[in-house]
Design a protein that fits this description.
This protein has about 80 residues and is of the alpha+beta class. It has two helices and four strands. Strand 3 and strand 4 form a beta hairpin.
């Protein structure tokens, strides 16, 4: 599998949903629309939490590699984020 291009990486480790999405939100706010962050998240809830959070906020989950606990998330434009 070829990884999607990304502009930034973040190892969230085993952070749970609350801390995970709050910190991710701040990291994405520092990025430009269209830029992609690769997140490594090992919390057992991340496979459900991150896609749901992306749907709720307007950010775009580009890809999820479940074997390596990796997520590629694209920063949405300010008009699409909630």
């Amino acid at each position: 599998m070829r990884e999607p291009d990304h502009h930034r990486e973040w190892d969230a480790g085993d952070l749970g949903c609350g801390d995970l999405v709050i910190r991710l939100r701040f990291l994405l706010k520092e990025m430009q629309p269209g830029e992609v962050i690769r997140v490594h998240a090992t919390d057992t809830g991340a496979p459900l939490d991150l896609p749901a959070w992306c749907r709720m906020t307007g950010e775009r989950l580009i890809e999820h590699d479940s074997l390596r606990c990796l997520y590629w998330i694209e920063r949405a434009s300010p008009t699409t984020t909630r």
